[in-house]
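Quick log. Single chain, no ligands specified.
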Amino acid sequence: MDSDDEVSDDLRTRLHAMESKLSRVRGQRDSHNDSAKRAADQRNSAQNKRNEVQETITSRMDDQKKVRAQAKIHQASRDEIQQTIREIFTRKKGKRDQGPGKSVVIQLSETVGEIERIEERIMTDGALTLEKENALIKKLRSLISRRDELIPNVEQQRIVSIDLSDMDESIQRLRAEADNEHKLMLEQNSLADEIWSEIKPLFEERDFLRGEGDRLHALFVEERGKADEAHKGLVELLSKVNEIRSEIRSQHEERERLVKDHNKSVRRALRGPDQNEELAESLSEKLLGGESITFGGIVATDSSETREEISKPKRKPRKLGTSRGRKS
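-> predicted structure:
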């Protein structure tokens, strides 16, 4: 039994040590999980902030593109007006500018002037033959179609219409309009530059948040790996703890069984014949088989002596006392 107690004490000592280690490893695992959760929360916060910054950048970039596009419209209008001014100067010098590079304003003015001349001739020239009149009407329709194509371009570029019959006045009007378009172009470009000044630091903030998100994600992965490793060791350690507990429980159950068997054996040894079930079954079989059964007790030859002993009066016991000496 002493050896069994030593084994049991050793198992309990190992169990206590493993349970302490189990608690320590569980604490480490939970600590790594908490660190991973904090890193994940911070990573998500950084990514959300980065997304917000990116949305602001995208929105402001769209605004800047619109402003730049507006500046280009003013620039195109200015260039078109300046081209018209150069063509008017060419006309003043007695030269006619032919070709596809001609200003839309000049093209529109020429087309409108040609339409007016044809309409007037048709209405006033009575010597026109039917064939010639039909040819003029056909040409008039073509010019009207061309005029309708040019008008939207002139309106889109906000170019003032001119009268080629008064070139000096037209040049003054066009110069004023060109200066105004140039001024509007500069204002739009300045506004676009201001928007870019707002966007530029946002790029730096976005890049910082991206790097911070990557760092926190790497930390999250590292802590999760440590937590998984600790959990793996925890599972292995828990398996060993359960084995020791099972061994201790088996030893305890074995001791209880031995104690029960010992007590049962003692009770069986202390039992009288009347409580002996095996003896009772044996006697029952003999009686059923017709055999005689002699129970233990007083035999017949001794009965007279026994009665005689019982009938004799018992001698009273002698009283013993201390003899006293003679009185003086």
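The chain has six helices and no strands.
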